[in-house]
Amino acid sequence: MLSQVVELIENKQNFAITTHVRPDGDGIGSSLGLCWLLRSLGKSAEVIVSDGIPATYHSLPGANEIVHVGEVNGKYDAVFVIECSDVERPNIKNLENQFTVNIDHHSTCEHFGTINWIDPTASAVGEMIYNLCKAIGGRISKEIAECLYMALVTDTGSFHFPNTTERTLKVASELVKAGVKPAHISEAVYNSYPWSRIELMSQVLATVRRDPSGRVAWMRQTLEMRVSSGMVDGDNSGFVNIPLAAKEVVASVYMREVSPNFFRVSLRSKGTINVARIAEKFDGGGHKNAAGCRVEGDWDECERRIVAAVIEAVNEDNHSTNGHALSDFEFTLV
Ligand SMILES: [Mn+2]
Question: Which superfamily, per CATH, for 2-190?
Fold first, then answer.
């Protein structure tokens, strides 16, 4: 819990911070924000990850100092593990033998840490790091503020999703007061993709189909499209949400061909339709409104089975669509 984290920081000196593979804005922003906080308290701290950092986050203060590692040695007093469901998520060897501090806002997270601080009421871990800063008597520097604002913006879908609370907006306001320029962060997140994203989007959207009721939409991304669009990692982030922009669409399926006869599937829904249950039927998982799974076999047949399961769930759902936004939206599931 928070008091244990404060005590640990006050009594120790050397820290590392890590997050999950395929890091998102909350993972990177919260890690860097915490790193800046620890340094401002006179501690030694560095962010260590096994994966590449998406270009969207390169402009964050401290992003260029992130250390890429495959293994962690014993030189730290403690390693903070940001937003990971289990100790394997960062894909860093020997992490399980460290003194770890598990910080997450997902209630499904395993309590794998030596210390566990889990707050499912927080919109993002970034909000929790803000609370930590306040609890420890730290000052919100411009660096901390920019990193934490990135975490909030990405995890709340620019304050669109139901996880956006009065507290989220209050924290965001404090971060702006500390020097954040919201338009700069939004520009980096939403308007800084390479053209290949637009190229790929036009090809993927050309495949979109709907069921006769018009409430379920699905689309495809083939291996060939990856090549012809010149796609780079992250170019298709959020594509699964595009059909949900139509008022009548309440569930969306996005299938990507990873290798011949092997597909990654993203599922999104509005309101009370639970796509995590559908993903679980195919050995996947996720949240109520955002889930994913992998399937193998003939494309048409795989698509038919998944779409049928989604249509069934939509039909069973008593609530008609009333414009609910997504909750628990995570780019990591794309
Ligand atoms: Mn998060």
Answer: inorganic pyrophosphatase (n-terminal core) (3.90.1640.10)
